[in-house]
Specification:
The chain is α+β, with helices and mostly antiparallel strands. 36% of the residues lie in helices and 21% in strands. Helix 7 packs across helix 8 and helix 11 runs antiparallel to helix 15.
């Protein structure tokens, strides 16, 4: 009989998993993708605004990782690859736009001069004195970024430099993100015996490279989603939540889908905890400890001729008193978006533990975005088009101890034949990490399926 596989979760991880299974198991395999929402793609979504496509979820991927370009090439999408125009972001802090500091690791400085335009004289002196202050670092434990950096460099470095960057990656704060999972090279430098945080950051900084940091798709991520759906040729079940799996004499019963030979769970951590509660309770308990952050993206276009700042975007300090955490100046950041009927941009709102943006109306969110845009840039123009996208539980929080939780989940599942897990909760929230996670999960169940 043809092998039967179920992939639970229709985000990028689930779609890549299904594609890898199709490639490995052949055209006769019965592959079913089950998605709780009414659409595929997860946190990848492209809409049309100002005469063309614009991503309102993830908009880019780390260009120095190979997974996404390789996948695009496999799917015949290599000509879709684009890179940013080369403009740098700025930071809005203390009432003004300021240059993004150079020589930092996720906003953590390796020298005082990096923070010269962001923090006061007392904080600069504190950074300068940090190497002479005893550093206590226990290789066997983890701590939040705030505990480490705030304790060494002070609150202004956290709120004006570190938090804006962490907010862009995790929709979290330095208080909710752990050092080991979010900053592995820094943790490695500290484990290796760095005598100060300043020295550890200097050791952890990546080597200079001329390669583009980010990449994207000219037609938006929906091009990749559509290509995966076409290549996978899977049966798709939308609007259906899998609540449990149960082992049978041969294979698994996926409730409410039915019997399959193998199953990959490519779902957020809370859903994973529910599905595995009875079958793999140790994995379920560990997954239950991974929390999610929600956010909102307000995409809009402005009248033709409106001048945006000459930056790729603006990060907002968390002590600036604004609601928006960042603006992506899309028409400046991406050359292929510069020829729209008017400039396009995105405002991002919402952080871990704060649901006020989710609970606001579309009208209030657009008004808030325009008010903060006026404060940050001085632009006072009406919008010509808008789109509001709410991301409920869109990003897992890589809190202190996250790596241990992931290891517990994977260790508990690896000895369960025909079951694998994958997702942004495991080894990185970016699209390349999700592609890698999906590839590993598909490989783990293929032998059983055959």
């Amino acid at each position: 009989m043809s092998p039967r596989a179920a992939v639970v979760g229709g985000g990028i991880t689930g779609l890549v998993t299904a594609y890898r299974l199709r490639t490995a198991l052949g055209p006769d395999a019965e592959i079913t993708v089950v998605e709780a929402s009414d659409r595929l793609g997860g946190t990848l979504r492209t809409v049309d605004i100002a005469g063309g496509p614009l991503d309102v979820g993830a908009e880019a991927f780390i260009g120095r990782r190979p997974e996404v370009p390789a996948l695009m090439a496999e799917l015949g999408l290599a000509d879709q690859l684009v890179h940013p125009a080369g403009k740098r972001p700025s930071i809005y802090s203390a009432g003004a736009l300021r240059a993004m500091p150079a020589g930092t690791l996720m906003g953590i400085p390796a020298r005082p001069s990096s923070m010269a335009d962001l923090v006061d004289a007392a904080t600069l002196q504190r950074i300068a004195d940090e190497p002479s202050t005893e550093l206590l670092w226990d290789r066997g434990t983890d701590m939040s970024v705030a505990e480490l950096v705030g304790g060494r460099f002070g609150e202004q470095v956290l709120r004006r430099s570190v938090d804006p960057l962490l907010g862009g990656v995790y929709s979290g704060l330095s208080d909710s993100i752990g050092v080991r999972a979010a900053l592995p090279t820094l943790a490695a430098a500290l484990d290796a015996g760095a005598r100060s945080l300043t020295a550890a950051v200097a050791d952890a900084l990546p080597a200079p490279s001329s390669a583009p940091v980010f990449g994207a798709l000219r037609g938006g991520y929906r091009v990749l989603v559509d290509a995966l759906v076409d290549a996978t040729r899977a049966r798709t079940v939308l609007g259906t939540s899998v609540v449990s799996i149960r082992g049978e004499r041969k294979g698994w019963r996926v409730d409410p889908i039915g019997h399959v030979d193998v199953v990959v769970l490519a779902v957020p951590a809370p859903a994973l905890a529910q599905i595995l509660a009875d079958t793999v309770p140790d994995a379920s308990d560990a997954a239950a400890g991974i929390e999610l952050a929600s956010s909102v993206v307000v995409a809009c276009s402005l009248p033709a001729g409106t001048e945006l700042p000459d930056n790729s975007g603006v990060l907002v300090a968390t002590d600036a008193g604004l609601s928006v955490k960042a603006f992506t100046l899309s028409s400046r950041k991406w050359s292929h978006l510069a020829d729209r009927t008017g400039p396009v941009l995105r405002a991002s709102l919402g952080r871990f533990g704060d649901t006020s943006a989710l609970e606001s109306s579309d009208e209030d969110l657009v008004e808030t975005a325009l008010r903060d845009l006026r404060t940050v840039t001085g632009i006072d123009a009406p919008v010509t088009a808008t789109f509001v996208q709410r991301w409920h539980g869109g990003l897992p929080q890589y809190a202190p101890g996250h790596l241990s939780r992931v290891a517990e989940i994977e260790d508990a599942v690896k000895d369960v034949p025909g079951v694998a897990v994958a997702g942004a909760w495991s080894h990185g929230v970016g699209v390349p990490a999700c592609v890698a996670s999906a590839t590993r999960a598909a490989a783990a169940v293929c032998e059983v399926a055959r």
